[in-house]
């Protein structure tokens, strides 16, 4: 079985409204794809994505696994959004190690 990975540019994701962005990501993951979002999702968007996912959990779709690089502190120590977010089907992707500048995950074909 092949695993497809969608690498989404920050420009594309920023051109979408928040709801459209979450639907775009969730639809990709529900199709079995690993979705990598450059620029990441804000913590609020991550929370809303989890809420949206919970309403769609079924036998065919057990949920998502999500991991992102930690936020960098910006000017005057103000927080910025996550630099990169990786989202995949829970049955396919499992984060095993997350550090300041790297994420290690096991991706398994079912």
Secondary structure layout plus pairing:
Blueprint lengths: L4 E4 L1 H5 L3 H13 L3 E5 L4 H14 L7 E5 L15 E6 L3 E6 L4 E5 L3
Parallel strand pairs: 1-2
Antiparallel strand pairs: 2-4, 3-4, 5-6
Structure, described:
Helix content is 29%, strand content 28%. It has 110 residues and is of the alpha+beta class. The protein has a single domain (5-107), classed as Translation Initiation Factor IF3 (2-Layer Sandwich). The strands form 2 sheets. It has a 4-stranded mixed beta sheet with strand order 1-2-4-3. A two-stranded antiparallel sheet has the order 5-6. Helix 2 (18-30) packs across helix 3 (43-56). It is globular.
Brief synopsis:
The chain is an alpha+beta fold and 110 residues long. Helices cover 29% and strands 28% of the residues.
The helical percent reads: 25-40%
**What structural class do helix, strand and pairing data support?**
alpha+beta
Instruction: Determine the number of helices (DSSP H or I, runs of at least 4 residues).
Output: 3
Instruction: Give the overall average pLDDT.
Output: 86
- As for the number of domains, it is 1
SSE order in H/E notation? EHHEHEEEE
Task: Give the strand content.
Answer: 25-35%
CATH hierarchy, class:
Alpha Beta
Rough outline: globular
Radius of gyration: 14 Å
> How would you sum up the major sheet?
4 strands, mixed
Low-confidence stretches: none
């Amino acid at each position: 079985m092949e695993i497809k990975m969608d690498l989404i540019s920050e420009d594309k994701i920023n051109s979408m409204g928040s709801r459209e962005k979450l639907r775009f990501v969730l639809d990709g993951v529900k199709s079995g794809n690993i979705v990598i979002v450059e620029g990441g999702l804000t913590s609020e968007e991550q929370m809303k994505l989890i809420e949206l996912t919970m309403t769609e959990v079924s036998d065919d779709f057990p949920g998502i696994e999500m991991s992102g690089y930690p936020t960098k502190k910006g000017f005057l120590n103000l927080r910025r959004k996550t630099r990169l977010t990786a989202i995949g089907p829970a049955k396919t992707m499992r984060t095993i190690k997350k550090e300041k500048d790297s994420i290690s995950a096991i991706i398994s074909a079912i």
